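not sure who needs this but someone in the group chat was asking about Iron ABC transporter permease from Shinella sumterensis so here u go. i didnt clean anything up, its just raw.
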Amino acid sequence: MTSRHVVLAAALLSVPALLLASLALGDQTVSRADLESLVDGSATEQIRMIVLDLRLPRALMALTAGMALGIAGAIAQAVMRNPLAEPGILGINAGAALAGGLVIVGLKGAGATLLPVAGFAGATLMAAAVFALSWRNGTSSLRIVLIGIALGSLAGAGSSFLIAFSDVADVQRLMIWLSGSVYAASWETVRLLAAWLVVPVALACLAFRQLDLMRFGDDIAASLGQRVNLGRAFLILLCTAISGATVAACGLIGFIGLIAPHVARKMVGAGHARMIPASALVGGLLLMAADLIGRTVIAPAQLPAGIVTALIGAPFLGYLLWGRRHAAQ
């Protein structure tokens, strides 16, 4: 058994371990005996509520959202041919944030119901605008990146305007959502997110050949029979659908889409037939761990998962930049 197989097996075994830890740990610790009582049906109503109604949906939401962000990051890095790319580089997160902010500030009580729809719509509209503006007898990764950064900055300025001039209560709700968290997860939101993700995730797994060709460059991909512009548009659509659904459900959670593909590439290699599932596995583990850390490190207070992933992701980005600098020398 190679070292890669050992690491992959350890990652797979980490999923049930993290799930059990997420069920047991928090501001009120649930003992092993209490967890076993859920199996034999003798658990108290309080234990059932804590574990089955609060912690289990939250852990599954973190796992599902992290898997989605890992897959979206793998797609973004292949399409952009940039190891530092993530869905946010396309302006997707900024578009979703602005749309969500408009709903929270403008619709008051109705905002909670429409927030997922607004976040998904904002991400989709931003991706469409980036692709349309980057079209010049075709598209290129560089134009998409530059326009994505520009439109993302513009949308970020719009969100900052809302924060500066809105009511304090609305701003607080908006800031909580922007920080990214799964604390409000329920069985309904888990089912809804899973339903949104089934089709785009399945298509992403089936598009591994297109992703493999795309990372070699437009000329090579075209010479091997790929319709480059159509393929790029399709892959960006998948990335947008996956990221938009996740942002709509959990808010803005950064760096998962950057870290997961890099770790997955070390585990299984660069071929996307294996890298897509591995990125999903690593992304799910990262977000589950971030949520667990966030709700236990300063319990009973909680840190949003997005803050924890930023604390992890910023040093990781520095590590990537330093490694590329060293390689260039």
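also The chain has a mean pLDDT of 82. if thats useful
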